[in-house]
Sequence to fold (111 residues):
Amino acid sequence: QPGSQWVFDAQTGILFTGDGFGYYQNAEQVGKFSDEVEGGIREIQFRDYHRTAFHFLRWVLPEKFNPDLDAIFAQLPIKIIAPIHGDAIRGDIPTHVARLKQAVANIRNTP
Fold:
């Protein structure tokens, strides 16, 4: 099972999320921060990666998962999300969190 432990660096505001927030990149995204890609990281990119990396997500209840995710982002001054797969997510963090939450819901609702 992929790693799911997250580490926050308070000096830089970077949240290292292991496989969480990972995504499959297209050629135009390689080597770019999310705010350098038009529209950022799409929900389907999160969904496709997380469906593969975290097989258990099909049983996760979004109404239980999402408040915990929201709590992390409410408590920490996160400037950058740094997943292992895909480049760093910088700028418009709330939109990307919402897209991950939607991806988790869609994984649950898709066979």
Q: What stands out?
A: The radius of gyration is 13 Å. The beta strands are 7-9, 14-16, 80-82, 89-90. Helices lie at 43-53, 62-75, 93-109.
